[in-house]
Design brief:
The protein is of the alpha+beta class and 456 residues long. It has helices spanning 2-13, 25-35, 46-53, 104-107, 121-125, 135-140, 196-207, 214-231, 242-245, 260-268, 283-323, 325-333, 338-390, 396-400, 408-413, 421-438, 440-447, 451-455; strands at 18-23, 58-71, 91-98, 111-116, 130-134, 148-156, 171-187, 210-213, 248-254, 275-279. It folds into three domains: 17-57 and 255-279, no CATH class; 65-247, no CATH class; 287-455, no CATH class. The protein is 51% helix and 18% strand. The strands form two sheets. It has a six-stranded mixed sheet with strand order 8-3-2-9-1-10. Strands 4, 5, 6 and 7 form a four-stranded mixed sheet that branches. Helix 11 packs antiparallel against helix 13 (338-390), helix 11 (283-323) packs parallel to helix 16 and helix 11 runs parallel beside helix 17 (440-447).
Length: 456
């Protein structure tokens, strides 16, 4: 049990300390299968995400609102024609809000500035129309540092929803923006979702991404929301809150992933139903669930083993003492104190058991290591087969461009339940306590012996 906890701590210590707040798809699916209808849940607001950021486990964080702009003159990076790039003749461009001069994607190696500079804190504060674009996007459109980006913010009319192309007649309202390119970045993302077409889509999404000050993106979304409300004043969607409709990316950097459980527990009191904390990729969840299963099994076996040992040793000691009753009676008749006799009996038991426990510790460690690792691999194989049947699930981490960290195989390479000094000492301490607990009834038997009656 202690070895399994050591493995769990070691794996957590080597994990990328990045988490995000997402919808709990497993809970939503369970609700649907049990009730027969989709769950009704509240959205996570900016205030809730900001409250989570104040938890002591969080070292840094980024909360970004995503916006959508369109252009007739700019081409989008295309890696696969099957993915959405816009409505003919408009190309679609995703804009990500930057809250300060520190960009989380740059800090964590997701992108790297190769020309120009980052967006400054003053530009964010003053809502300057400046932007970062990818090198691929810049090359495709003959852009560079100092170039101007001309983009349209369009609120499409209801009639456009049924059209694959969008003309001027499909525009309910529009705003025009001019951004100055202050920096060009290269993507360092290496997605590995398990599906090649999904990985390609993620790379395409990052290469087409435009970074701009957060309040500019807020104003882009607010305009679209207000125009929608104006055109659809009676619609149920028009009654929703602004923050419920537009996507929010959130990501938190935890100081130590060994605090993950404490962080999750604290977040549970803040999040609405059907929202949860996810880690970078699903490798850790896979192996952590399996480790928890092994830990529960080991704990159960340990409890049963200790209880059985106390019972069996007690019975064996009582039978042994009954056979040695004459010997004990002679010792007591010669003036030996009962305490000394008791001590001698315990010492004999400890001496014999010490050899047995040392041998069992060595042999048991070899067996436990092989058995537990095989159990872990079989459990992970079953989980992988289930995920294959369910299909590929792409998290917000994947779309942000973060790789899933260590694979399951890499984590298993560090799976080691070999004995260390602390584990051995703990094992022997439990053993000694078990021996003393087993000796309680036999000791009472010795204390109650009357040497005169024995020798008569």
């Amino acid at each position: 049990m202690q070895a399994v906890r050591k493995v769990d701590d070691d794996i957590r210590a080597n994990l990328p300390a990045i988490v995000s707040i997402e919808l709990d798809q497993e809970s939503l699916n369970m609700h649907y299968h049990s009730v027969g209808q989709f769950a009704d849940f509240d959205s996570v607001t900016l205030n809730v995400l900001a409250e989570i950021a104040t938890l002591p486990y969080v070292e840094s964080y980024e909360i970004s609102i995503l916006g959508n702009l369109f252009s007739k003159n700019l081409s989008q990076v295309v890696l696969d024609d099957n993915f959405f790039t816009g409505f003919e003749p408009w190309t679609h461009h995703s804009v990500k809000g930057v809250q300060g001069s520190t960009i989380f994607d740059i800090e964590n190696g997701l992108i790297e500035i190769v020309s120009g500079r980052q967006i400054s804190a003053d530009e964010v504060r003053n809502r300057s129309y400046v932007a970062l674009i990818s090198k691929e996007f810049a090359s495709l459109n003959n852009l560079g540092v100092g170039s101007m980006l001309y983009l349209d913010n369009i609120a499409w009319s209801n009639e456009s929803l049924w059209s694959e192309t969008r003309t001027e007649d499909h525009i309910f309202s529009r705003q025009e923006y001019t951004f100055e390119v202050v920096g060009v970045f290269e993507s360092r993302a290496n997605p590995n979702t398990g599906a090649e077409h999904v990985d390609m889509h993620i790379i395409q999404h990052i290469e087409s991404r435009i970074y701009a000050p957060a309040e500019i993106v807020d104003s882009i979304n607010l305009f679209v929301f207000e125009q929608f409300q104006e055109e659809n004043s009676e619609s149920e969607w028009a009654q929703k809150r602004f923050e419920d409709i537009f996507p929010i990316e959130n990501i938190y950097h935890i100081g130590d992933m060994r605090d993950l459980d404490n962080f999750k527990e604290a977040v549970e009191y803040i999040l609405p139903n059907f929202w949860t904390v996810t880690t970078l990729g699903n490798s850790f969840e896979q192996i952590d669930a399996s480790l928890q299963t092994i830990n529960e099994l080991v704990t159960l076996i340990l409890v049963i083993a200790i209880a059985a040992s106390i019972l069996i040793l007690s019975l064996l000691l009582i039978l042994s003492l009954r056979e040695r009753k004459q010997e004990i009676g002679i010792c007591l008749a010669l003036g030996e104190s009962k305490a000394k006799v008791v001590f001698q009996m315990i010492l004999e038991v400890l001496t014999i058991s010490l050899f047995a426990i040392a041998l069992s510790l060595a042999v048991g460690n070899v067996i436990a290591s092989n058995v537990s690792e095989n159990m872990l691999r079989e459990d992970l194989a079953r989980a992988a087969a289930q995920r294959a049947n369910d299909g590929v699930f792409v998290s917000s981490f994947d779309y942000m461009g973060f790789s899933p960290g260590e694979s399951v195989e890499e984590m298993l390479e560090r799976y080691d339940v070999s004995l260390d000094a602390a584990t051995a000492v703990t094992f022997f301490a439990v053993f000694v306590v078990t021996i003393f607990a087993s000796s309680i009834l036999p000791l009472l038997y010795i204390v109650r012996l009357d040497p005169k009656k024995i020798l008569m």
